[in-house]
Amino acid sequence: MSILSLHNVSLRYDPDGEPVLEDVTLDLARGDFISVIGRSGSGKTSLLNLAAGFLPPSSGRVLINSRPVTGPGPDRAVVFQDDALYPWQTVVENVALPLKLAGVAPAERLQTARRLLDSVGLGEHGQRRIWQLSGGQRQRIGIARALAARPEFLLMDEPLGALDAMTREMMHGLILKLWNDSRAGTLLITHSVEEALFLSTRVVVLAPFPGRIVLNEPFDFGRRFLSGENPRVLKSDPAFIAARERLVTAIHDEETV
Ligand SMILES: Nc1ncnc2c1ncn2[C@@H]1O[C@H](COP(=O)(O)OP(=O)(O)OP(=O)(O)O)[C@@H](O)[C@H]1O
């Protein structure tokens, strides 16, 4: 089983300055869905950038299956809040792009891209241009594209941050279904405690200055949703409400843990 690991990782942007992350240890395995929450400046995006291989740690190790990560790779797909789609290409061409870069033959990559577009409910929109779509549709395409090359890990930085509440809720169900189908080990950075709690098999809270893990707890609300439980009922479950309070307290109270 593939595991993306951060072992005792610290990060300084300024070699003489304070660390942005200090002694962070976290394992993301296939089938995991880990959300990272925390106050602004706690190092969430920096943590994702280390996992993606965009940045090297100042100390500690970032490993995939015990081998050092030396840069970005096709085993890790990244989705940002601002979708990086190409407006001059059609929807289906955008989704097929990672397969084109991987050298997959045109017929096969179009077939895969169409299947992914169907899975995000946009099968009818393949020939449209990106500018003809709503923000929620664009994020669905961004996630479909990220999954096209079957990455082992999906790293998402606030992918739903710009969406309205209703679209966001719809996206939660979709993200859980795609995660369940792909089994890609998923790391989600979010500002929404409820989103983290509803989606994740594990929620990690970072406290700032220096960024460090102050809470790391498993949850099963996403799995319960996938087994057919109603999301509104799940979110009013006393266990959900109590967990939300614990997470909010951990974010605002550095004495936790
Ligand atoms: N490229 C950079 N160079 C120098 N400092 C940086 C850089 N990127 C981030 N920082 C600093 O590192 C700290 C953590 O930033 P980071 O973006 O990882 O936090 P975050 O938790 O994702 O914040 P937010 O919730 O506001 O997006 C902040 O103090 C930020 O100013």
From TrEMBL:
InterPro entries named in the record: AAA+_ATPase, ABC_transporter-like_ATP-bd, ABC_transporter-like_CS, ABC_transporter_ATP-bind, P-loop_NTPase
Output the superkingdom of the source species: Bacteria
Pfam families tied to this protein: ABC_tran (PF00005)
Query: What keywords does the record list, in alphabetical order?
Result: ATP-binding, Cell inner membrane, Cell membrane, Membrane, Nucleotide-binding, Translocase, Transport
Molecular function GO terms recorded: ATP binding; ATP hydrolysis activity
Q: Tell me yes or no: is Transferase among this UniProt entry's keywords.
A: no
Question: Is Transport included in the keywords of this UniProt record?
Answer: yes
Q: Which PROSITE patterns match?
A: ABC_TRANSPORTER_1, ABC_TRANSPORTER_2
The signal peptide, as residue positions, is none
Q: Pinpoint the ABC transporter domain residues.
A: 4-233
Tell me the protein family, please. Answer: Belongs to the ABC transporter superfamily.
Q: What is this protein called?
A: ATP-binding cassette domain-containing protein
